[in-house]
Specification:
By secondary structure, the chain is mainly alpha-helical. It has 16 helices and 3 strands. The structure holds acetyl coenzyme *A.
């Protein structure tokens, strides 16, 4: 093996071979299992897309019905998980709550059988079914309220919005939320997926895999950026303030949240679709006050940073959609996690199918042959 050039952040270095998703960052193309994201957003549902990602092909009608049925009947949380959540500090971030709950789920299924297809199927169903319930439960329980029980007559997206807002959602809102989940379901080897794969490669259980990915997604340079976008729009406050805000950021070399991507050097195709969804919601429920600021921001950043390939990423318009759906800002990243569980599980399954533990190398830059100085002799 020849020595490789060191690339910070492993930029451009293939970490795996995968047939789950594909991104062309210059043409703005994203495909799941070869199908364009625009087509899936328009014609599929989140659960069908999750099936496609995890099992490698679109389900037959019967397979889809069975999958939906299984998930519907595994949505409830164990009372011990709910009891555990009661002890969480109400000011804690929901991503920390979710990470803890995902890991705790592993306590109930500690027998690992990674070569048993039933074990894999059950873990997929449980995680896809229960993660939304955990997010909705924490939202209510942190205020001292009881969680709302899932409703078997509602589909995946509608049930989540029902558990969250304690009322049946509008049909358009539920469909748009489902599309948001589809758009966020998978995105090649991003930081959280890489984290999931590294954890999976040790052959630990899938609950630990998802917990480690949730922890990675939480950071502001990854999934956490969607919350920061809303904070930034609040801070800017008016369309007139956009240009000076951007000029100041450019001058200080500060990052503008919701812009830029390691892979996309054009507008993220998901941002394009999300913007359209936001507009559909505004047409039905009224325009968001921040939308004009967002439009101006996109224009000014295009002018100032477009030459560096800095354009809106998936997090830029998702926050405006979620705001219109009545979702609190600190749940934006957990919602990203609800969707991305599908991608993480697809990579978990792919990883354990042909596993080799991740063990990269490093370039040591420290000293050698140092003397040990007893504490009494140290300055
Ligand atoms: N605001 C201002 N300038 C930016 C931004 C940004 N958001 N993103 C990149 N740039 C600039 C950099 O300053 C750099 O300029 P330089 O060459 O003059 O130094 C140039 O564009 C290239 O940027 P890199 O740092 O090489 O880009 P990298 O691939 O390392 O970063 C990242 C990608 C982390 C997403 C970055 O764009 C960023 O911090 N964006 C803001 C946070 C964000 O929105 N994250 C969500 C990403 S999507 C997701 O994870 C789901």
């Amino acid at each position: 093996m020849t020595a490789c050039e060191y690339r910070p952040g492993l930029e451009g270095i293939p970490a795996t071979q995968s047939s789950i998703s594909y991104v062309d960052g210059h043409q703005g193309i994203l495909e799941y299992r070869g199908i364009r994201i625009d087509e899936l957003a328009q014609k599929s549902t989140f659960l069908e897309t999750a099936y496609l990602l995890i099992w490698g092909g679109l389900p037959s009608k019967q397979e889809l019905n069975d999958f939906q049925h299984e998930i519907r009947y595994h949505r409830r949380l164990k009372y011990r998980i709910r009891d555990m959540m009661k002890c969480f500090p109400e000011s804690g971030h929901p991503m920390d709550a979710l990470q803890s709950c995902a890991a705790a789920l592993g306590l109930f299924y500690s027998k690992r059988a990674l070569d048993d297809p039933t074990y894999i199927q059950d873990a997929v169903v449980r995680l896809l079914a229960k993660i939304p319930t955990m997010v909705a439960a924490f939202k209510l329980m942190r205020k001292g309220n009881d969680p709302v029980q899932p409703r078997d007559d509602l589909d995946y997206a509608a049930n989540f919005l029902y558990m969250l807002n304690e009322r049946e959602p509008d049909m358009l809102a539920a469909r748009i939320f489902d599309i948001c989940l589809t758009l966020h379901a998978e995105h090649t080897i991003n930081a959280s997926t890489f984290s999931a794969m590294v954890t999976a490669s040790t052959l630990t259980d899938p609950y630990a895999v998802v917990a480690s990915a949730v922890g990675t997604l939480a950071g502001p340079l990854h999934g956490g950026a969607n919350e920061e976008v809303i904070a930034m729009l609040e801070e800017i406050g008016s369309v007139e303030n956009v240009r000076p805000y951007v000029e100041d950021c450019v001058q200080r070399k500060a990052r503008i949240m919701g812009f830029g991507h390691r892979v996309y050097k054009v507008k993220d195709p998901r941002a394009q679709i999300l913007q359209g969804l936001a507009e559909q919601l505004f047409a039905k429920f009224g325009r968001d006050a921040y939308y004009d600021i967002a439009l101006e921001l996109e224009e000014v950043i295009n002018e100032k940073l477009g030459h560096k390939g800095v354009y809106p990423n998936v997090d830029f318009y998702s926050g405006l959609v979620y705001r219109k759906l009545g979702i609190p800002t600190d749940l934006f990243t957990p919602i990203f996690a609800i969707a991305r569980v599908a991608g993480w599980l697809a990579h978990w399954k792919e990883q354990i199918g042909e596993n080799r533990i991740f063990r990269p190398t490093q370039i040591y830059q420290g000293p050698h042959e140092q003397p040990y100085i007893p504490v009494s002799e140290r300055p």
